[in-house]
Amino acid sequence: MARIVMKFGGTSMAGTERIRRVANIVRAQAAGGNQVAVVVSAMAGETDRLVNFCREANPLYDPAEYDVVVSSGEQVTSGLLALTLQAMGCKARSWLGWQLPLHTFSAHANARVGDIDADKLVASMEAGEIAVIPGFQGVSDEDRITTMGRGGSDTSAVAIAAAVKADRCDIYTDVDGVYTTDPRIVARARKIPFVSFEEMLELASVGAKVLQTRSVSLAMKHNVRVQVLSSFVDDNAPPADTLPGTMIVSEDEMQEILESKKMERQSVTGIAHDKNEARVVLTRVPDKPGAVADIFTPLGEAGINVDMIIQNVGRDKGETDVTFTVPQAELARAQAMLEDKKDKIGFNRIITDSKVAKISVVGMGMKSHAGVAATMFQALADRGINVQAISTSEIKVSVLIDEDETELAVRVLHTAYGLDAEDPAIEGAA
Ligand code: ADP
Ligand code: ASP
Ligand code: MG
């Protein structure tokens, strides 16, 4: 007998027919003698719809009330799944964030998981009940409902798995694992059976939305065994226990797997893209000590996350251009703040562009392979794709390009690093 947390995403929960399919998968795990807790997302599209309602009601909405509205999608699906399981003769009970309780802290709309009181949940699971938990939501110190940022149900699931000391956390979604890149963009993307926490963390943080970044860091911290797999399976599909999806493993385990299979690590494990960044250029910034601090300190204080930064070599007259990226959603705020500080910083103009995309290649193998960045730049240059900014970490190289060239760039790089599969991954994918 194992204790398993299962998480089902929005596409898997979209409508009563799909919820019935989910209930069947859950019932099979419970019937195998396992203790089961299920974390669910809102139906696909529902959270976007609710976010729009908030914007229409009040463009400068209060995040605490936004949380009241957007958390409701998960309340609906958790109740519906509990009802469907009951209709199948299973014992099932839903547990809202405040009922567990799942404590969160810091900002509304982007809350972080704190303590989870797992006693009631464990008692219910031990009594043979299937616990159904709405993802994405928690409760603040002030007893108000909170949400954990878009894609936050993944983090709910991992946090609950850590709290109940689950043997495994299975993240069921609409693809059957983590691929070398988004299989909806590259039909020849390959499923990766094992990926290390570090690589997955980096991939998620640069846009591979299959797992929320925080869910990966939480899993790494608490050593939760996370598997990504598909909920769109037929009765003959291999059961989750046989690990048909992608397992996220520690670096040590990854080394053992590579050694046992006598495999060498590729330089690049995966490629991700992110269209949610915007580029800001400040022209004719004084080329003197303290100038960049004047730009980035106020942005940092306002909680605006700056990603790529380029300072051009100073031209004559002691002036330089400074280029950087911020999340698109923060662009208006960043721009207003910089205009406000224009005299202090001493720049000439602000030029912004939201039609940019960040393309990143990620891989532990980069540490021991030279020339990874050169391959990237050459492959993009061969297709006439212009690189506007570059940033690197030990296991990642990112470039900023024109948004219209996103799909082309991802495909070209996928081929350049030898990641293409023989057979297309998902039939009908672009
Ligand atoms: P859910 O609603 O189940 O949480 P998401 O839409 O958040 O699902 O995440 C699954 C999607 O992530 C897939 O449909 C796929 O298009 C996208 N994706 C992006 N990068 C990858 C990748 N490297 N591997 C698999 N899926 C990816
Ligand atoms: N429903 C939320 C969202 O769409 C949370 C999630 O699905 O993970 O962002
Ligand atoms: Mg998701």
Shape: globular
The counted number of beta strands is 20
Sketch the major β-sheet: 8 strands, mixed
**Distance N terminus to C terminus?**
42 Å
Ligands bound to this protein structure: adenosine-5'-diphosphate, aspartic acid, magnesium ion
Q: Summarize the amount of helix as a percent range.
A: 25-40%
Low-confidence runs of at least 5 consecutive residues? none
| Mean pLDDT, all residues | 94
Strand order in the largest sheet: 3-6-2-1-9-11-12-10
Number of H- or I-type helical stretches:
14
How are the elements arranged and paired?
Layout: E1 3-8, H1 16-31, E2 35-40, H2 46-57, H3 63-70, H4 72-87, E3 92-94, E4 102-105, E5 112-116, H5 119-126, E6 130-134, E7 137-139, E8 145-147, H6 153-163, E9 168-173, E10 194-196, H7 197-205, H8 213-222, E11 226-230, E12 246-249, H9 251-260, E13 270-274, E14 277-286, H10 291-301, E15 309-311, E16 319-327, H11 331-340, H12 342-345, E17 350-353, E18 356-362, H13 372-382, E19 389-393, E20 396-402, H14 406-416
Parallel strand pairs: 1-2, 1-9, 2-6, 3-6, 9-11, 10-12
Antiparallel strand pairs: 4-5, 7-8, 11-12, 13-18, 14-16, 14-17, 15-16, 18-20, 19-20
The chain binds adenosine-5'-diphosphate (ADP), aspartic acid and magnesium ion.
Residues 9-11, 41, 151, 173-175, 178-179, 181-184, 208-210, 270 line the site of adenosine-5'-diphosphate.
Keywords: Amino-acid biosynthesis, ATP-binding, Kinase, Lysine biosynthesis, Nucleotide-binding, Transferase
GO molecular function: aspartate kinase activity
Protein name: Aspartokinase
